[in-house]
Each structure stands twice: as structure tokens, then as C-alpha cells.
Write a structure and sequence with these properties.
47% of the residues lie in helices and 24% in strands. Strand 3 and strand 4 form a beta hairpin. It has 16 helices and 22 strands. The protein is an alpha+beta fold.
Length: 617
């Protein structure tokens, strides 16, 4: 008997340890997946933002080159410098625009005379490519990070060759400050010890932000972990890995995305120490509960053994036998009460379900759902679910798994007794009979945080309009509807005239208030099926869906007139701006990026023709 009880206790300990390990591994896997999803979401948002900034710079470079190719012979040095300054003013990300001569020396621009053009020769005189090779290239050239000869700051340089009647006439270069990229990263809501970094293809750092980390690293440094280097060699376009960063030696789950069309990669890391802290606390609680359960089982085993031994020794003494039996029963009663107290804990909600009705539940579940003692007993599980669809889906998915001996876990909306809907993560397993055992944890706060993160990732933080990411999604959806229905579709690129003057005169707070007011007015002029998005600065994009071409102009005229109306500032002053609009009608096989590029070119024509105009591409 003694050997049997020892073996039974060892088996029970092994079973509890296995169950605890299984639960902890599953929950850790869930935390790892959520950390990876969060890192991939941050990397995707940063990739789109960086790609958008560079695409905007390249678009201005190309339009400037077209104008220079047409007017180069008629422009003197003063006019050429003025043109470069005006175009640089269109790009918040650009430090300045410079133009070199055919020998690669910077001749036009701000304070860079006699400096070699990036892509022809760098500051040390190392030749990268010949003029002929640059002239025949179709993609822009990105170099850096390097020190700016103008300001001494770290910059990246985007360059394109100037071709006039088929002949190479110099390089047009735009310098982008690394501090601008760092300010772009500062807009993201990163947690403590999270990190987001932009690196070149040779893994040199361009910019980095890591809240709570003293050492942010130096621009241009290429010190990285072996896991990062192996991951980017194996999957250069995107992936994820877990490592300690070479800069600060902090463990992170990192996702990376290559910026399409550019030799740059965005790395977004989520701090494992912070993200896995709730899992570690849960692990301590579950392990402690399992140890307590095993100790209680061990105590019950010892009591049973002693009871049996005492009964054998006192077989001929009835009084002693009765006393021993009574004492054993009292001990068993105490043990059952202790076991019941363990189940009726305040930490984890538990219930036994049979026939989809609650046969037993602990205090934690009653408190979670707002019911009084005993009110849930024999109640159908349907009354706990927020809707019929969730109830049916859970039954359809869970019970086949439970019958097969597996466990089931999901997140469902449940309704408390007062009608409030909360999100609960439930985990079920089959018991020996036809019933099942369920545990429930309130995840409403985590669910709300996830929804807020999705909103931040798809909306402009100032105006709450859709950002470029959500704009592209809606534009693809509108194009798909157009291909099926054949209805009209227009993409409009809108820029505010006079916004910079308002910013310079009244300050950035006034400029922000103006942007918010203009955004509300544009929304008020559009239909629910249309979209208006802010893509940066004072630039907006409108998508007019299911609207005949003849109706576009009246709608845009009303919208431009609404924008022109004065905007009252909080201190009694009023400001007024205009709007220039470039419009493109969607063709049969159009894609979003092409439409945005055509609308942007139409906007530039509207600006050149005198502003305050609506120009059709």
C-alpha cells in the first residue's frame, strides 16, 4: 500500500507538471505570436512611411528634371537657384536641392560650390559610376548616410541625372536629414525598451529610436547581432528573429521589412522583458497553484495511509476503530474544504459544464460576470454569450476537439448580468464523464489596446483622417468595385495654397488648428462612399467613387470654395487659405500608385498655372 501511494503521488506530480508545462508553453507561444504581430505591424507602418517619404522626394526630383530639361538653356544661375529653393520647399524631409555640372561639381544650390555630386564621386574622390551609366539608369540613386558638406549633419542623398536632348548635363541631388527620419519615428507609440531602426543594405544605421535606452547608437555604425545578419541574408525582403541588440544588449522580438525600391530596411523590435512580464507572473501563479494542489493530494494520501494502518492495528478494538474512523473522516472533510477553497480562488474563473449548462462554478466566475452566489448553477451557457453567433461558433469549434481529447482556447464576447459586454479568453478540456472543465480570463483591456493600435496605424494623428496606408487599402477596394460595376472613379491630389505663410506668421499650433478645420470641411462636402486622407503636411488625397465624370467638377468646386472660407483661431484671429487640385480619372487597368503619381503631376500643373485651380490629368 505504501509503495502504491508513493507511485500514485509521483504520477500525480508528473501529470500536474506536464499540465502546467503544457499551459505555460501554449500561453508563451500566444505571447510570442502577439509580440511578433506587433513588431510586424510597426515594421509595416514604418516601411510605408519611409517609402512614402522617399517616393515623394523622387517624384519632385523627376518633375524638377522635366522642367529643367525643358528650360535649362533659358535659366541663368539666379533663376536656377530660385527654382531649386522653391522645389526644396515642397518637401519637409529635404534639407536642400543641388545641381551639379557635367564634371560632377555642385554648381547650383545652397553653399555647395565645387562639391562632387553623389553617385559620380564622393567626398574622398572614390568613383562610383560614370556619367553614361547614370544617364541610362531608370531608378534613383540613394547614397549615405554621410556628413552633409552644408550643415555637417548626417544625411541620405537621393540623386537623378539631368538629361537634355539625350545628353548628360549633371546630377540633381536631394539631401534628407537623418534627424528627419528620427523625428518620423518619434510619432510612433513605442513601449519602454522597444526599438525601431532604419538601416541600409550594408546594415549601416541611418536612424534609431528606443525609448528608455541611454545608448541610441551612432549614425553610420554597422554593429548588429548575428541573428539579424543571418536573417537578412536568408530573407532580405522581410522576416523576423529574436536576439539581443548589439547596441544595448536588450532582448527583443524584431520584425523587418525592406523598403520597396530602395536599399533600405526597417527593423521594429518589441522588448521581450516588458512584453513577457505578464506571462512570467502568470507562470508563477499557475505553478504555485499546481504545487499547492499536489501538496494537498500528498496530504490526503498520507492521511489515507495512516487511516488504513491504524484500522489494521485496531481491528480487535471497536472503540479504537470507531475513534480512528471518526478522526480520519474529520481529516478528509478538512481536506475537501481545502480543495474547495483552492477551486473557489479569486484569481482564475472556473466552471464545470455538462450539456452546455453550468453545473458548478467558483466565486471568481460569478464576480467576473456580475452574478450572485449560485445564480449561474444550471443556467444555459447561452445567457453568458453576447450574441447567438458567438455561442454557436464556440459549440461548433470546441466540442469536436474536446471529444477527441484536445483542449480548446479562444476569445469571445460575453455579456455580464448588467448587460455590459466584455471580452473573455476561455480554455476548455474534457473531464472523465460527459462534462468539461473551463477557465476564463478577462482580456477586455488587451482587446481595446489592440483596437487602438490598429486605429493609430491607419489614421493621421492630427486630423484623424485616413493615412496613406488606409488610403491605399480603400483605393484598391474602390478599383475592384469599379472593375465589376464600371462606375466612374476619380483620384484627386489637393494641396493648400498659403498654408506655409500661416505657419510662419501664426505658428505651428495655428497651422495644426487650420489643418483640422479644413479636414472637417472636406469631410462635410463628400459622400459616405468617398474618402479624404491626409498624406503629409498640407497635402490631401480624395477618392471619389461611383460618380460620373460630369459630377466631379461641381463637387470639387464646392469643396475648394469651402476650403477658401476663413478659419477662426481661438484668440479671435482668422486665417484663410486656398486649394489647388490635380484630378485623374481611373483607367480600366489602373493601380493605386500610378493614379496617385498622375494626380500629383496634375497638381503641380495647377500650382504652375496660378494656384487655386482644379486641373484634370
Amino acid at each position: 500500500m505504501k509503495r502504491g501511494l508513493v507511485v500514485a503521488n509521483l504520477l500525480a506530480a508528473a501529470l500536474l507538471a506536464g499540465l502546467v508545462l503544457s499551459v505555460l508553453l501554449r500561453t508563451k507561444s500566444s505571447h510570442e505570436a502577439r509580440a511578433r504581430d506587433l513588431a510586424e505591424s510597426l515594421a509595416a507602418v514604418a516601411q510605408l512611411n519611409i517609402g512614402s517619404e522617399l517616393a515623394q522626394v523622387d517624384a519632385v526630383l523627376q518633375s524638377s528634371l522635366q522642367e529643367l530639361a525643358a528650360t535649362r538653356d533659358r535659366l541663368d544661375d539666379q533663376a536656377l537657384n530660385r527654382l531649386l529653393r522653391d522645389r526644396a520647399g515642397l518637401l519637409p524631409a529635404v534639407e536642400d536641392l543641388h545641381l551639379s555640372d557635367t564634371r560632377g561639381h555642385m554648381r547650383w544650390g545652397r553653399g555647395l560650390a565645387d562639391v562632387s555630386a553623389p553617385g559620380l564621386a564622393d567626398a574622398h574622390g572614390h568613383t562610383h559610376a560614370t556619367a553614361a551609366e547614370l544617364a541610362h539608369g531608370s531608378a534613383p540613386i540613394l547614397s549615405g548616410p554621410e556628413r552633409s558638406p552644408l550643415t555637417g549633419q548626417w544625411v541620405m542623398v537621393v540623386s537623378r541625372p539631368l538629361m537634355v536632348r539625350g545628353r548628360f548635363q549633371g546630377m540633381l541631388c536631394a539631401t534628407i536629414s537623418a534627424d528627419h527620419v528620427a523625428r518620423l519615428f518619434a510619432r510612433y507609440e513605442l513601449g519602454l525598451h522597444d526599438a525601431i531602426t532604419l538601416r541600409t543594405d550594408d546594415l549601416r544605421m541611418v536612424a534609431r529610436r528606443a525609448p528608455g535606452v541611454p545608448n541610441q547608437g551612432d549614425v553610420g555604425m554597422a554593429a548588429v547581432s548575428s541573428q539579424l545578419r543571418e536573417a537578412t541574408q536568408r530573407q532580405p525582403d522581410g522576416g523576423w528573429f529574436v536576439s539581443r541588440a548589439a547596441i544595448d544588449n536588450l532582448p527583443r522580438t524584431t520584425a523587418y521589412r525592406r523598403v520597396e525600391g530602395w536599399p533600405l530596411t526597417v527593423f521594429a523590435g518589441v522588448s521581450n522583458e516588458r512584453f513577457f512580464q505578464p506571462w512570467r507572473e502568470q507562470a508563477v501563479q499557475v505553478a504555485g497553484t499546481a504545487v499547492l494542489a499536489w501538496l494537498l493530494l500528498l496530504a490526503a494520501t498520507v492521511a489515507i495511509f495512516r487511516f488504513g494502518a491504524r484500522e489494521a492495528l485496531a481491528m480487535d478494538q471497536v472503540a479504537a476503530h470507531a475513534r480512528a474512523q471518526r478522526e480520519a473522516q474529520e481529516r478528509e472533510t478538512r481536506l475537501l474544504k481545502e480543495q474547495a477553497a483552492m477551486l473557489d480562488n479569486d484569481l482564475v474563473s472556473m466552471a464545470r459544464v455538462s450539456g452546455r449548462a453550468i453545473r458548478w462554478c467558483n466565486v471568481a466566475l460569478e464576480r467576473l460576470l456580475g452574478y450572485g452566489p449560485g445564480e449561474l448553477i444550471d443556467q444555459s451557457m447561452r445567457v453568458l454569450y453576447a450574441d447567438e453567433a458567438s455561442f454557436e461558433r464556440t459549440g461548433r469549434e470546441a466540442y469536436p476537439l474536446l471529444q477527441a481529447g484536445s483542449s480548446y482556447r479562444t476569445q469571445v464576447p460575453m455579456r455580464r448580468k448588467n448587460g455590459e459586454v466584455i471580452w473573455v479568453e476561455i480554455t476548455g478540456t474534457r473531464l472523465a464523464d460527459d462534462s468539461s472543465f473551463w477557465m476564463a480570463v478577462d482580456v477586455t483591456a488587451a482587446k481595446a489596446a489592440h483596437e487602438r493600435l490598429l486605429h493609430v496605424a491607419h489614421h493621421d494623428p492630427l486630423t484623424q483622417l485616413p493615412n496613406r496606408t488606409l488610403l491605399l487599402e480603400r483605393l484598391r477596394h474602390s478599383l475592384a468595385l469599379r472593375s465589376r460595376s464600371g462606375a466612374g472613379l476619380a483620384v484627386c491630389y489637393l494641396d493648400l495654397d498659403g498654408f506655409k505663410a500661416v505657419n510662419d506668421r501664426f505658428g505651428h499650433d495655428a497651422g495644426d488648428a487650420l489643418l483640422v478645420a479644413v479636414a472637417r470641411r472636406m469631410q462635410g462636402q463628400l459622400r459616405p462612399s468617398d474618402t479624404v486622407a491626409r498624406i503629409g503636411g498640407d497635402e490631401f488625397v480624395l477618392v471619389l467613387a461611383e460618380l460620373a465624370p460630369a459630377d466631379w467638377r461641381p463637387l470639387l468646386d464646392r469643396l475648394v470654395e469651402a476650403v477658401r472660407q476663413p478659419v477662426a483661431l481661438g484668440d479671435g484671429r482668422a486665417v484663410q487659405v486656398g486649394a489647388s487640385v490635380g484630378v485623374v480619372a481611373a483607367a480600366a487597368e489602373a493601380d493605386p500608385h500610378t493614379l496617385l503619381g498622375l494626380a500629383d503631376q496634375a497638381l503641380l500643373r495647377a500650382k504652375r498655372e496660378g494656384k487655386g485651380r482644379v486641373v484634370l490629368a
